[in-house]
Amino acid sequence: MDALTLLPVIEDPREFRSAHEHDRALAVLEKLWGGQPEEAEPLAVELTACEPTIRHRALLADVRRDLGRIAWASSEYRELIDLARGTAREAVLWQHLGKVHFVGRDYPRAVEAFVVALDLRVRDDSSEDLVTSSRLALERAELLLPAHLHAPTSRDHVQ
User: Fold this and answer.
1) What is the pTM assigned to this prediction?
2) Please, how many CA atoms are within 13 Å of residue 11, restricted to the half-sphere of its CB?
3) In the 8-state DSSP scheme, what is residue 11?
4) 28 closest CA partner among 90, 38, 18, 137
5) Percentage of the chain with pLDDT > 90?
6) Alpha-helical segments (H) within 34-157
7) What DSSP letter does each residue of 40-72 carry, written as one string?
């Protein structure tokens, strides 16, 4: 994950391809995470049409997020979260919704989504790398909140 953009990056394409060789979404992932969402979109649309799984729909939402279709991606993630509520996938979907808002520069909403993702991951005793990922995303989004949201309240000064 790129620490500034919070988006995935493929560091070793050969290793990535080998690790995902049986993944039907490999071509979409390579294009999307390779910074080519316009080339990923028709692949993601076709994949989702053939297999409209939560994962494939989420990939299409990520593609459209990177194409600047923030409202569409946000709406799709809200629907996917409703479908996955109470499952292990819910935290992942909240994390991705946070990334949609982050890319759209809606940092308050990104923070809200990352908080939910982090809470769910901690509650569900997720792996430390997933918890760390949520913490880092939350910290990055909080850094970019407008200054007025960081202004101390009167309670902050009570000793």
Assistant:
1) 0.86
2) 2
3) S
4) 38
5) 75
6) 37-50, 54-66, 70-84, 89-103, 107-123, 128-143
7) HHHHHHHHHHH---HHHHHHHHHHHHHTT-HHH
